[in-house]
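Data availability (excerpt). The following record was deposited with the supplementary files.
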Amino acid sequence: MESGKRTEAGSSASCSSASVNAEKQQKLVDMIDKSQENVDSCDKAVDEDDDSDDGVAAAFVPSPLLPLKEQLEKDKGDESLRRWKQTLLGCVESDLSDHVEPEVNFQSIGIISDEFREVKTRLPIDESERDHVLFTLKEGSRYRLKLTFCVLHNIVSGLTYSNTVWKGVQVYQNKGMLGSFAPQPDPYVHTLDEETTPTGVFARGIYSAKLKFEDDDKRCHLELKYSFEIRKRR
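Predicted structure:
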């Protein structure tokens, strides 16, 4: 009898323990499910935000470009505005046409370094020279790219650049804003931000790069592919 009671008690304790474990497991499952629901709701909210952003971006339509001649003829009754426009664009009034799209012609790219004065290359680069090394620098050198370009027909707004560098894989990218430029007979000269070449044995060698210029309307005015070399500093 006592043995039977002990067996019954042991069986009851086992059932109780199994029940408690089952409850704990169920609670754990419920917590995981709830956590997953929270993650799913967050993902859904992020997706909705992304969709709304895309909707805003898709809905944005830039104002149409007007020929520079038409822009100058507007607001003729405003004397101060007329004088301001004449100061800004008077030097090209005789060359105005009905062209709408601005045109940016890049004439040369130069490299300025503390190791030498300036190495200048005429643009566009001949196809046969695209794979040639454009310039060579020592590791740890500071340098700047210098650009000479002309603007024709209309004002180019929000001209930006990106300079991407690869050595097998992408190792560097720099982006910046040049600004807005009006047509003028003389070329513009713009020097980009100073950069420093990397150092170390793995930094030495030949790199490929792409320099790209776009305006506010995503018109690409130049996409220059070039190569350069980094050598050991002695």
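Summary of structural features: Strands lie at 103-113, 119-122, 133-138, 142-152, 156-167, 169-181, 188-191, 195-196, 205-214, 220-231.
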